[in-house]
């Protein structure tokens, strides 16, 4: 399915001037944005199934050494689901809503 204009706008905004959009990870998955300061950003608007895939992509970006921080952007109604999924997959980072008004630090869960 093609990306919505809003999704493209959010990607360009997060990438700033020198960041990369659609960054290819070693496994072939694509990361929405890799900022100039090595922050991996995934923007997910499709609900819980998409959130699970996005968190897995961020975990891979962190484990491969591509990114030093992870940020997941979801709609306000999916914040709680995204928080639980990040905790379940042991991913620490930042969780924000699409407008950026709500920011939650997710601590990395120790095993």
Low-pLDDT runs of 5+ residues are none
Which class best fits the helix and strand makeup?
alpha/beta
Strand fraction: 25-35%
The H-and-E topology, N to C, reads as: HEEEHEHEE
Q: How much helix, percentage-wise, in residues?
A: 25-40%
Main β-sheet, in a few words?
A: 6 strands, mixed
Across the major sheet, the strand order is 1-2-3-4-5-6
Number of helical runs?
Answer: 3
**Total strands:** 6
Shape: globular
* Integer average pLDDT: 94
What Rg do the Cα atoms give?
A: 13 Å
The first-to-last residue Cα distance is 37 Å
Question: Any overview of this molecule?
Answer:
The chain is an alpha/beta fold and 111 residues long. 33% of the residues lie in helices and 27% in strands. The protein has three helices and six strands. It has a six-stranded mixed sheet with strand order 1-2-3-4-5-6, with helices on both faces. It is globular, with a radius of gyration of 13 Å. 29% of the residues are buried. The mean pLDDT is 94.
Set out the fold topology.
Layout: H1 5-15, E1 20-24, E2 30-34, E3 39-43, H2 48-63, E4 69-74, H3 79-88, E5 93-97, E6 103-106
Parallel strand pairs: 3-4, 4-5
Antiparallel strand pairs: 1-2, 2-3, 5-6
Key attributes of the depicted protein:
33% helix; alpha/beta; single chain; 111 residues
